[in-house]
Specification:
The protein is an alpha+beta fold. The chain has a domain at 2-58. It has one helix and four strands, in the order βαβββ. The protein has one helix at 9-21; strands at 2-6, 24-29, 32-44, 51-58. The longest helix is centred in the N-terminal third of the chain and has 13 residues, at 9-21.
Length: 82
């Protein structure tokens, strides 16, 4: 699990909406990017400003899809020769 603290109300609201709708959320912090499901958002009122602690469960990276077969090449001008 990945824990992130923010003081931005808009960002906290975005994470709450992602949690409510079951969507993945992405956090970019200190050069690292974490994408996953939001597990919890807790408001911390210990300081002078409001802060939120967001807990994210990272998604496993997706495996690369196998290469698709190339489409057959059709020559429409050849139909006139028959």
């Amino acid at each position: 699990m990945f824990t992130y603290q923010t003081t931005d109300r808009k960002e906290a609201r975005r994470f709450r909406m992602a949690q409510f709708n079951g969507r993945t959320a992405t956090i970019r912090s200190a050069g690292a990017t974490v994408t996953g499901r939001v597990r919890a958002i807790v408001e911390s009122k210990s300081g002078a400003t409001a802060a939120w602690v967001v807990t994210i469960v990272p998604d496993e990276p997706k495996a690369a899809a196998p290469a698709a077969r190339p489409a057959p090449r059709l020559c429409f001008a050849a139909e006139d020769d028959f």
